[in-house]
Amino acid sequence: MDILGIRAAYEEASxxxxxxxxxxxxxxxxxxxxxxxxxHNQRIQKSSPTLHAEIAALEDxxxxxxxxxxKATLVGTLSPCSMCTGAILLYxxxxxxxxxxxxxxxxxxxxxxxGVEVTVLDxxxxxxxxxxxxxxxxxxxxEDIGEAHFN
Amino acid sequence: MDILGIRAAYEEASxxxxxxxxxxxxxxxxxxxxxxxxxHNQRIQKSSPTLHAEIAALEDxxxxxxxxxxKATLVGTLSPCSMCTGAILLYxxxxxxxxxxxxxxxxxxxxxxxGVEVTVLDxxxxxxxxxxxxxxxxxxxxEDIGEAHFN
Lengths: 151, 151
Fold this sequence. Notes:
Two copies of one chain form a homodimer.
Chain A: H1 6-18, E1 25-29, E2 35-40, H2 53-61, H3 66-69, E3 73-78, H4 82-90, E4 95-100, H5 108-113, E5 117-120, H6 124-136, H7 138-144
Parallel strand pairs in A: 3-4, 4-5
Antiparallel strand pairs in A: 1-2, 1-3
Helix pairs in contact in A: 1-6, 6-7
């Protein structure tokens, strides 16, 4: 059973990779662990600078009451960037599960400082898929995290 | 001349209000002050929990190089929430201009701590349009900032 939602998040990342996109996936779980929304990074597919996986999952979940977010868990294959960190704080999502933070480490400390429970799984499949993409397409990856690419 | 872009941002907010939406508008200016992208909050119009005005303006600007963001200015009619604050930090946008922060004050201190130049205009039109919406539709406003509504 995919208690932590990481399998579904990885499936999203994998779908993104097959589409030629940046392989980061995310799901939002309700208080019972059911999936409220799921998505993957759409930078390349939709030419979107803001549809990171976590934002896509929030969009898929649609408009929810504040009370739903406050019992939800956001799961992502990779450590969240500042924007996605901010989305977690906006909706006061109390806990997040991260597949890995080796390829990129976002604002996890800010989340912890603000009381969010952060679990890092150190998942090998998430790490290896992301590493593969970064090696194959460093320019697009750098664009996604607001970094210039000089190679 | 709309040097600070606030007039265009207010026009976006006003369009949002006329559409029955939450009246917050935003524009992104390039280093010369030309508009790269513009948008307004789409919670009600597109049933979107993430298309805040600033996110809509970033989407409208499309995929941009890191070097473009690093010379840009983000202008919004209202103080940015945590998510939009995070988007500013992700893309390392060096300065923002805020119409007002009376109806809502976001994570301005975090932006300043991270070196972003924050200018608050205390604009009367922005303040009065936003106040009107909050009085008319408090439930939708609270939803937009992740707050429960108990009235």
